What does this fold into?
Amino acid sequence: METIILYGPYLLFSGCVFGFFMAWGIGANDVANAMGTSVGARALTLSQAILVACIFEFAGAYLAGGEVTSTIRKGIIDPELLADSPDLLVFGMMASLLAAGTWLLIASFKGWPVSTTHSIVGAIVGFAAVGISFDAVSWSKVSSIVSSWVVSPLMAGTISFLIFRSVQNLILNTEHPFDNAKKYVPFYMFFVGFVISMVTFLKGLKHVGLSLNFQESFIYSILIGVGISLLGSLFLRRVENTHQVRGDVVFDGVEKVFAVLMVFTACAMAFAHGSNDVANAVGPLAAIANVVQSGGQIAAQSTMPWWILLLGGIGIVSGLAMLGYRVIETVGRNITELTPSRGFAAELAAATTVVLASGTGLPISTTHTLVGAVLGVGLARGLSAIDLSVVGRIIISWVITLPIGAGLSIVFFFTLKGIFS
Amino acid sequence: MASKGLSDIIKKSPFGPIKAHMEVSKNSTVELINFLESAVNSDWNKATESRKVISQLENEADVLKAETRSLLTKSLFLAVPREDILDLIKLADDIPNTVKDISGLMIGRQMEIPSAIASSFLLFAKEASAITDAAGEAVDHIDELFQFSFGGNAAIKMQELIEKLDSLENKNDQSEITLRAELFAIEKDLPPVNVIFLYDIINKIGELSDRAEQVGHRISLIASR
It folds into this structure.
């Protein structure tokens, strides 16, 4: 209690710094996977991708990032158990940020496919189970999070498989693929708008003073879906059935139609990514801010300060603007085989899955979900060659990241505890 | 970089080097025609030049064959069966090899082509080269076929390409019969060993067209799955 009162502002300030850099790292690194798909498919140029990412990552973080942030903040460990020693919660969350940040730095240096989400969840579980007590961890919540890590790539894979199969049957395998593309693509656009807004209306927006019930959300989402598909149809009118060369890729007329669709799915992907991944950075910060601002009280019904999500959003966008473009370019250059008709299916499936997880408050890995979605397209014979050994490496990265995140946060936790007591 | 997972999963299409290989095969049959024209004119200096080009092309083809195989690692999931792709490249690689054999055999023996059969002989060889071109066209079409998921107009066009290939092959069979008849008519006036080798060369050119036709059929088989 005294520690909080004495050092509160300093602790909060350093929490903000760590949280901001974590968000910055997500923007510099993770966003690349979400946006690289569109750049690789030549649906967006690099600068367009940055612009889309800045707007929609921020919107996703601010509008729909609340649920996952709350899971990180008070879902994995029950703050009420720490009512007598709120300083431990502050040290723990600080240690988690440091641990995840350190591990991510090492991993990106070595080029390992490590997930931000897995690092932070491992870190929080680590300090809570070892530093506080085994029972401080809400194991049922943790197990539902861990199973969502298995379910989310599978779900994204299944959805992308079905979407691409529908594209094959409705458009590609027909006598007039171009005309059919123009006819059916607006329906996919509707789906993009509907899913994203439905989840956001249902689960987010309370903190911006808008609370809608299921029926209202449903109606508004349909309206937004229709609006998006009308807007898309407007763009589609200008697409002509001619070949076009972009970079080293020859674009058939059909692919140009899908490229328009992919602009929308890219927005959805950035929104989904922001809504899920911002929590990794600002969830621990929110917990720290709650304790410090209440002067050492751990309030049961604490609300999240609005500026937390804002800070996370700004962090992501600044990381993106400073370093992200380079990573996006690299990813985009490496996946040119993913044409818009394939890329959109992968993005739409991944965005849908991630947004659903965000609405449910489950922190999942956007990259792994996208990998699952790409595999789904591949299994539908949409890609000439996909490397299944990546799946093995992803599983290894899970197994490694959890104990290392936990171990590092335990070390940082006891170090901080030692310094302040 | 956290981005590794995604860009590692999507691999290059193995059809890239196969298409390049087919391009080399086409060039080598074109050079074979140059070679045979020089041989018919008994210009062995020029023929030796062509022979050098043919050997070089055969080497390039081997490199591309190896590249195709190295792309097909065990952990890949491919849109078309790995065995079909391996068969395809094996068949395709016979084309530059056979061209090299023909030129090697002819230059080694400085084989004279009797003027009575020269025009039929060249026609026969040119048709074999045209079949290779047609097979190459089918191989080039695989990208479009893949883009449209092996169906629709792309599949119809592939069918047309294969029909064209078959009709070229039929024509070529007729030319072979004519050529053999012409050679048969004059064979008793020629040194017997030379005749044996002439028949051997005709067989090998026939083999060339067969291989090219098989490449086309293998592609259409891949397409129909």
